[in-house]
Design goal:
This protein is an alpha+beta fold and 293 residues long. It has 2 domains: 4-159, Butyryl-CoA Dehydrogenase, subunit A, domain 3 (Up-down Bundle), CATH 1.20.140.160; 169-283, Nuclear Transport Factor 2, Chain: A. 53% of the residues lie in helices and 15% in strands. The protein has 12 helices and 6 strands. The chain has helices at 4-23, 26-42, 51-74, 94-104, 106-112, 117-128, 133-140, 144-159, 169-185, 188-193, 219-232, 280-283, and strands spanning 195-204, 216-217, 237-244, 247-254, 257-266, 271-277. A 6-stranded mixed beta sheet has the order 2-1-6-5-4-3. β5 and β6 (271-277) form a beta hairpin. α3 packs across α7. The protein starts with a helix and ends in a 10-residue tail after the last helix. The model has no long low-confidence stretch (mean pLDDT 89).
């Protein structure tokens, strides 16, 4: 076995990726990874046949426990809950970036909230991290047949909710840069044109800052909402295109203070969904790109 510390360090982005996709929170994922490190440090290394499998399984089990606790807390959350966004590195091949964006996007993580903790873990391990069913079964302490059924039901449950479009990165980025330029220039006509008629905006203020209690529907209404600051606070506004959860999104600043992080779903021609994170607690981690697998 490699040096335990070096091995853990090498696998840390993968372990964080498992925990973050399970919990939708970077600080909760960091807590899980730190706990796994302590368990790893205290384990008898000679008894561990496959270190990576042990670490992924331990991370998953710890994340399931964390998600069950978080679910109870989120029942009392004020307003609509959205995952905590991450700044991610723009590296890798276009194929890798498309795959990563599809299973890391804020929209996808939000959809995963529909799944029970065990179902979420089974689905992620098998369909996202390509683990065989025997590994999933050992991790969840269930039979392979039961895990196959859990993953099957999870796919069915997500099918109606999962983002519908696999838009190439360059197409998505070109559209987003046009939209960012339109906001910066106060070009309401272009903003409206780039919004699908049935577009949806979901905002998370966490009860700390003002946000909508339910989704806003309608491209024209959303364009008006995003255009309004240009009328009132034009000189204070700054929009910064940034890689958010594997896709180009926008960070909005007023007087150089980060006010919100916007993640977008597009169909390649227009914006179909905007997920706006305004909860200050969830914006604190947007300081530098996170390495995640």
């Amino acid at each position: 076995m490699d040096d335990p510390t070096a091995l853990f360090t090498r696998l840390r982005p993968r372990l964080f990726g498992v925990a973050y996709r399970m919990l939708g929170s970077s600080h909760e994922a960091e807590d899980v990874v730190q706990d796994v490190w302590l368990r790893w440090h205290g384990a008898n290394q000679q008894d561990i046949e496959n270190a990576e499998a042990w670490l992924v399984a331990t991370t998953t089990r710890r994340a399931i426990d964390g998600l069950r606790l978080a679910r109870r807390t989120r029942e009392h959350y004020v307003g609509m809950w959205l995952p905590e966004p991450l700044l991610t590195e723009d590296t890798g091949t276009p194929e890798y970036m498309l795959e990563t964006a599809s299973d890391l996007s804020v929209a996808f993580l939000n959809v995963l909230e529909r799944l029970a903790p065990d179902a979420r873990a089974a689905f992620l391990l098998h369909d996202v991290f390509d683990q065989d069913y025997d590994v999933v079964a050992r991790t969840l302490d269930k039979t392979e047949a039961a895990c196959r059924q859990i993953v099957h039901r999870a796919r069915l449950q997500l099918r109606q909710e999962r983002p519908r479009y696999n838009v190439p990165q360059d197409v998505h980025q070109k559209l987003m840069r046009r939209f960012a330029e339109a906001i910066a220039n106060g070009d309401f006509g272009t903003m409206k044109t780039l919004m699908a008629e049935s577009a949806v905006l979901i905002g998370d203020g966490g009860g700390i800052v003002t946000s909508f209690p339910k989704p806003m529907v309608g491209g024209a209404r959303i364009a008006q909402l995003l255009y309004a600051p240009h009328l009132r606070r034009k000189d204070q506004l700054r929009m910064v295109p940034s890689m958010i959860n594997g896709r180009l999104g926008l960070l909005r600043y007023f007087d150089d203070v980060l006010e919100s992080a916007m993640a977008f779903d597009t169909n390649g021609e227009q914006i179909v969904q905007i997920l706006v994170q305004r909860n200050p607690h969830k914006l604190q981690g947007l300081n530098q790109p996170t390495s995640i697998q």
